[in-house]
Write a structure and sequence with these properties.
By secondary structure, the chain is mainly α. It has one domain. Helix 1 runs antiparallel to helix 2, helix 1 crosses helix 6 and helix 2 runs antiparallel to helix 3. The longest helix has 61 residues. The chain is rod-shaped, with a radius of gyration of 23 Å. This is LemA family protein. Pfam families: LemA. It comes from Vitreoscilla massiliensis.
Length: 196
């Protein structure tokens, strides 16, 4: 009788250890997938950050009186870029991600203010150099939107998997307690194609 109980307990422990090992591998794969998709988002963000100096330099030459708006965009870009560099291996649930989201929201608002300035200032709105730059930014914004959507899909799947049974037990045992943060798509895009 004791031997049978001992055998059943050993079998149960082996099953539990096996589930934890499989769960650990699955979580690592999902985190790696999230990281890979995040790298796409990051690449689009750097493209956008690299675009700003071109825009600002061109706008400075055309319109000297609105340098404060241009300066605000540059400062916000630098803050967002610094915050983005702080996000390392696990963008889905880090404090650095939250800091970047705040900096990115401010940068996006500064870009929207710049867009408004361009749309309300005829010499900016119709300048051929700025038209080409604006078209470039629209493409960057579309790619960024797509990358953010893919990241949110990947992070959403990670969250859903983490909360399902029996993976939720493995998640607790392996320390996966925080949900992946989702990117607020409407807050990350400054230039919408329909307003071009």
């Amino acid at each position: 009788m004791w031997v049978l109980m001992l055998v059943l307990m050993l079998i149960l422990m082996l099953i539990l250890v096996g589930l934890l090992v499989l769960g650990s591998q699955r979580f690592r794969r999902l985190q790696a997938q999230n990281h890979a998709v995040w790298l796409q988002v990051e690449a689009q963000l750097y493209r956008r950050y690299d675009w700003v100096p071109l825009w600002v330099q061109t706008a400075k030459c055309i319109l000297k009186k609105e340098l404060s708006a241009l300066k605000a965009v540059i400062e916000a870009r630098q803050a967002a870029q610094r915050a983005l560099k702080n996000i390392k291996q696990q963008p889905e649930h880090s404090r650095a991600m939250q800091e970047w989201l705040r900096a990115e929201a401010h940068f996006t608002q500064c870009l929207r203010d710049l867009r408004t300035l361009v749309q309300t200032t005829p010499e900016l709105r119709n300048h051929p150099d700025l038209l080409a730059l604006r078209a470039d930014l629209l493409l960057i914004e579309q790619d960024l939107s797509l990358s953010c959507q893919q990241y949110n899909h990947s992070a959403g799947f990670y969250n859903q998997y983490k909360h399902g049974f029996p993976s939720n037990v493995a998640a607790l045992a392996l320390g996966h307690t925080q949900d992946a943060l989702l990117l607020p798509l409407e807050a990350t895009i400054a230039f919408e194609p329909r307003s071009a």
